[in-house]
Amino acid sequence: MRAPGFWSQPPGLLSAALAPLGALYAAATARRVARPGARVGVPVICVGNLTAGGTGKTPTVIALAERLTARGVAAHVVSRGYGGSEEGPTRVDPAVHDAGQVGDEPLLVSAFAPVWVARDRLAGARAAVAAGAQAILLDDGFQNPSLVKDLSIVVVDAGAGFGNGRVIPAGPLREPVATGLARADLTLSIGSEAEQRTLTLPSPPPRLDGRLAPLATGMPWAGLPVFAFAGIGRPEKFFDTLRGLGVDLKGTVSLADHQPLTPALLHRLGEQAARLSAQPVTTEKDAVRLPPSLRGRVMTLPVRLTLDDWTPLDAALTRLDL
């Protein structure tokens, strides 16, 4: 879905009219998260957010998986598998599954750690532990009460912040900011230095500042005529990254987050790129939704999460004996 435009604007008449429904949504979330969760015998690290849509959770999960692997910990990821048909628990196998079955994000993350797709997160975590997981990375499970979380990291898009500050459907929030942050152990804000300076968090837990940086691949991007398309939370972030690399950005198309890349849509995108004599480029998350026949023709710009200071996160992992 595309977020309504008024979600990112100062509160107005429409958001005020929807505020009572937002209060009901917030109350339902509060009741849900108050339910007791279960333990599965290994530490559970939750990566979540307070808003609908993308904030950088997937790069955060990848970074944590790599961090834990470097510490000798076998971490498995448990995901709902948004956009996929599998109910699970199913271990993602890129040689067998496609994004339509398991979702684009699990397919992408499976290159870095074992990933389990499960509508029932507890069942997914138990399957992971039975397969040898020494830690669980719970992807987008902050408002899911089925598991006790030993470490909860709330990821915030520093540029978008919390929108108009109201709860769905009056705004982008899944729950009030202060309520959510009170349950978090760490806040990770992702964005440029300018965005970090303008982001204000009310009484937050310890804050980490990070950014998504292009992965050094040796590709000579400067001057390359590019036609870019992206279906992520904020496609403009991807386009800005390309501009920062010095590409000749001939055109861009913003898609909805997780938008299916149908043959008709791909045909239109290909025609646009050809008319502009430009190389099609997309994100890693979008690339896994491409049909195999097109993956050699569409370039991908990979990005990775970098933190200004890893010390608070490493200390939290050490406290969990990881």
From TrEMBL:
<dbReference type="InterPro" id="IPR027417">
    <property type="entry name" value="P-loop_NTPase"/>
</dbReference>
<dbReference type="GO" id="GO:0005886">
    <property type="term" value="C:plasma membrane"/>
</dbReference>
<keyword id="KW-0067">ATP-binding</keyword>
<comment type="similarity">
    <text>Belongs to the LpxK family.</text>
</comment>
<dbReference type="GO" id="GO:0009244">
    <property type="term" value="P:lipopolysaccharide core region biosynthetic process"/>
</dbReference>
<keyword id="KW-0443">Lipid metabolism</keyword>
<keyword id="KW-0418">Kinase</keyword>
<comment type="function">
    <text>Transfers the gamma-phosphate of ATP to the 4'-position of a tetraacyldisaccharide 1-phosphate intermediate (termed DS-1-P) to form tetraacyldisaccharide 1,4'-bis-phosphate (lipid IVA).</text>
</comment>
<keyword id="KW-0441">Lipid A biosynthesis</keyword>
<keyword id="KW-0808">Transferase</keyword>
<keyword id="KW-0444">Lipid biosynthesis</keyword>
<protein>
    <recommendedName>
        <fullName>Tetraacyldisaccharide 4'-kinase</fullName>
        <ecNumber>2.7.1.130</ecNumber>
    </recommendedName>
</protein>
<dbReference type="InterPro" id="IPR003758">
    <property type="entry name" value="LpxK"/>
</dbReference>
<feature type="binding site">
    <location>
        <begin position="51"/>
        <end position="58"/>
    </location>
    <ligand>
        <name>ATP</name>
    </ligand>
</feature>
<dbReference type="GO" id="GO:0005524">
    <property type="term" value="F:ATP binding"/>
</dbReference>
<dbReference type="Pfam" id="PF02606">
    <property type="entry name" value="LpxK"/>
</dbReference>
<dbReference type="GO" id="GO:0009029">
    <property type="term" value="F:lipid-A 4'-kinase activity"/>
</dbReference>
<comment type="pathway">
    <text>Glycolipid biosynthesis; lipid IV(A) biosynthesis; lipid IV(A) from (3R)-3-hydroxytetradecanoyl-[acyl-carrier-protein] and UDP-N-acetyl-alpha-D-glucosamine: step 6/6.</text>
</comment>
<keyword id="KW-0547">Nucleotide-binding</keyword>
<dbReference type="GO" id="GO:0009245">
    <property type="term" value="P:lipid A biosynthetic process"/>
</dbReference>
